[in-house]
Automatic annotation (TrEMBL):
This is DUF742 domain-containing protein. It comes from Actinomadura barringtoniae.
Length: 135
């Protein structure tokens, strides 16, 4: 049984894993397995992610942070908001979210600008407005 010194918890090599004032200490590179960039497309702070609803092929392979991120993405979230909610650095969220993107568990939600909408939508809005005025 591993012994814990007063004032903190220690890992197998006697390195300190816990700081009473700050809480658990986990370096960002440990969370991302040493990676600093996502493998796929780059994600910026305003990229919106949403869960696809696809079940993970190997649920046990997801890290705790990835499971938490996936749970938050049940509703669309910006990457910056995910970093804030999970209290993790933006770079860590980019790597974890990139892994979830690669595995098809989350998708980037793309927004189209009103200028990109087809003209038929404008015609439909005019007809609705005309009908409302007729009431």
């Amino acid at each position: 049984m591993e012994q814990h010194a007063p004032g903190g918890q220690y890992g197998p090599g006697r390195e300190r894993w816990f700081d009473e004032a700050a809480g658990p200490i986990v370096r960002p590179y440990a969370v991302t397995r040493g990676r600093t960039r996502p493998r796929g497309e780059p994600l910026d702070i305003v990229t919106i992610l949403v869960a696809t609803g696809t079940p993970p092929a190997e649920p046990g392979r997801l890290t705790r942070e990835q499971r938490r991120l996936l749970a938050l993405c049940r509703r669309p979230h910006a990457v910056a908001d995910l970093a804030s909610e999970l209290d993790l650095p933006f770079g860590v969220i980019r790597v974890l979210a990139g892994d979830l993107l690669d595995s098809g568990l989350v998708a980037v939600q793309r927004w189209t600008s009103p200028a990109a909408a087809p003209h038929t939508d404008q015609n439909l809005l005019r007809r609705v407005l005309d009908e409302l005025r007729a009431l």
